[in-house]
Amino acid sequence: xxxxxxxxxxxxxxxxxxxxxxxxHELQAHPGSNSDDSAIKALLELETESETILSQDPHLSTxxxxxxxxxxxxxxxxRSRGRSLRSFLTRRVSTHSIxxxxxxxxxxxxxxxxxxxxxxxxxxxxxPFNNEDELMKLLTQFEDRLLQGFxxxxxxxxxxxxxxxxxxxxxxxxxxxxxxxxxSAYAVAALIRFNKDxxxxxxxxGPTIHALLTVASTHSxxxxxxxxxxxKSPLVDEIESNGEIPKIISFxxxxxxxxxxxxxxxxxxxxxxxxxxxxEAMLEQGLVKKLVELQRSELGxxxxxxxxxxxxxxxxxxxxxxxxxxxxxxxxxxxxxxxPFASCVAKFAVQLEVGEGLRQREKRAFKQEILMRVRExxxxxxxxxxxxxxxxxxxxx
Length: 397
Fold this sequence. Notes:
Layout (H helix, E strand, L loop, with lengths): L3 H26 L8 H12 L1 H5 L5 H19 L5 H42 L5 H15 L5 H10 L1 H10 L5 H17 L1 H10 L2 H8 L2 H14 L1 H9 L3 H6 L6 H17 L2 H9 L2 H10 L6 H6 L7 E3 L5 E3 H12 L5 H11 L5 H18 L3 H13 L4
Helix pairs in contact: 1-2, 1-5, 2-4, 4-5, 5-6, 5-7, 5-8, 6-9, 8-9, 9-10, 9-12, 11-12, 12-15, 15-20, 17-21, 20-21, 20-22, 21-22
């Protein structure tokens, strides 16, 4: 039978190292504090407590040396409290050295945590059905760590462990629960933000896009939208060449409002970055007709009329957090919150107009085609006139 203490040991090591990391972080900000400073006291107390723990892990030998050096530097700083030039210079040098060593301690601890976390995640991904709650926790922690910014050592760990491939396997496995697949998708998006140059090729060449659309949830489409923003036209090209445009457009027909809204966001991003073939594919799927219907619905409307109301009301009103806006802006914001598809035809047209994917002559041609399709889809001359006016002049009141 396995000794329970063996399971508790990694958690105990992590707790000690997290405390060391926090104390060293605080010490970097205030390296010249006196010996009674809480950060210094915590580090010195933990240095004594952690001797046994550090000696058991070869990866922590450097950390042990840094802690020993820190103790010596603090003692030197304590002895240099006089007012002589020598004491002043000694304090300056010691303070700088303490800050540097504290930074090294924090880096060493983070490297250890990254190694342990990556190893644990890799093992959990190999058997996603064993402990779903633990895997969710590890995936969330991994995403949070990536979003802290680029780190070369962490990238090397991720590449050696082939984490991206494991995440993609989970994402494509229909036997895995939806929440595990969604969280894996968020981790993939975090990897792209972490270092687009390294991981974008794996997204473009693999089944990630198709898998996200197969999951067909608000979370998976949000991830797709985020990937489009990060990778831009090359990802839209891949979506179009794989024949995925109709699937995205079809999400506008679902009953779930949140799904409709994230689908709309995705369509607007495709409109901004998409080249001619992608825009043509959307229009061929009857996108303009669907947008006209959404704008006609109770969740739609147009911003032209809102812009005409109370234009003289320009006095500022507080909207929280110290932010100020005019009454007109407040009215418009509240309207948009309750009418997410207001002026959606014009919003799409504006994305094409200001976007990066089309040439100027293509933009002009698509604008005319949108106007033609608006007239065909409208149920009255008044509706057509309003939408056409918004498309011609933009959706802003």
